[in-house]
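re: the backbone from monday

yeah here it is again, tokenized this time
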């Protein structure tokens, strides 16, 4: 259990021991094949990582953020918010995720046990794709979306790096360009994500989260 608690993360993504005690003992391993609706955006932002992070010297001044509605997954439906800086030194986009929260205890366990993702819990109100707010202990992230233009085919991989291993996430579906209004508060989130309007996409389709390699 200590390995699930000790993952590097931002303060907003820490997992209290009393919450860890409520996690299931096991969850299905990767790959996770999911049907999703999501809002994804990019924003210029400073690095949120401490100098002690193994990724601190590789951070680009660009953050990838998302709110995701998992319509189906190996642990059932749930919702998620995450944000992470893009890393230098790679041909394909690679994101390191120090903040991620969901409204599912099995998803918390699966993220931490299988991918070293520092998932914690949050409550969600609203609808992904229009206006949604995620709220946790001492923090909140509100995301409002205004889609523009036609739906277009959307396909491609994204890689995440949480330790020495990398995970490939593939998405196949359709998406619309959008303006994404973000308002974040919290010890780190307020200064890192802050408030502003950013380019993004509203997407829906099939997402597969592969095993770390």
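seq for it, each position gets an aa:
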């Amino acid at each position: 259990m200590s390995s699930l608690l000790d993952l590097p993360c931002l303060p907003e993504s820490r997992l209290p021991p009393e919450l860890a005690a409520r996690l299931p003992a096991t969850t299905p391993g990767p790959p996770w094949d999911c049907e999703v609706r999501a809002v994804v955006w990019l924003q210029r932002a400073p690095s949120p990582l401490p100098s002690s992070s193994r990724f601190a010297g590789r951070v680009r001044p660009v953050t990838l953020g998302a709110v995701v509605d998992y319509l189906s997954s190996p642990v059932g439906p749930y919702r998620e918010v995450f944000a992470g800086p893009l890393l230098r030194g790679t041909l394909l986009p690679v994101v390191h995720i120090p903040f991620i929260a969901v409204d599912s205890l099995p998803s918390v366990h699966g993220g931490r046990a299988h991918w070293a993702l520092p998932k914690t819990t949050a409550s969600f109100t609203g609808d992904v794709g229009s206006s949604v707010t995620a709220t946790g202990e001492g923090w909140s992230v509100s995301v409002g979306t205004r889609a523009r233009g036609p739906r277009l085919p959307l396909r491609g991989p994204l890689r995440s790096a949480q330790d020495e291993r990398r995970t490939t996430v593939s998405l196949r579906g359709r998406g619309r360009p959008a303006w994404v209004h973000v308002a974040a508060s919290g010890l780190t989130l307020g200064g890192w994500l802050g408030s502003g309007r950013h380019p993004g996409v509203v997407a829906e389709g099939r997402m597969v989260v592969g095993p770390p390699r």
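The first helix runs from residue 2 to 5. The domain at 2-16+32-209 is CATH 2.40.400.10 (Acetoacetate decarboxylase-like).
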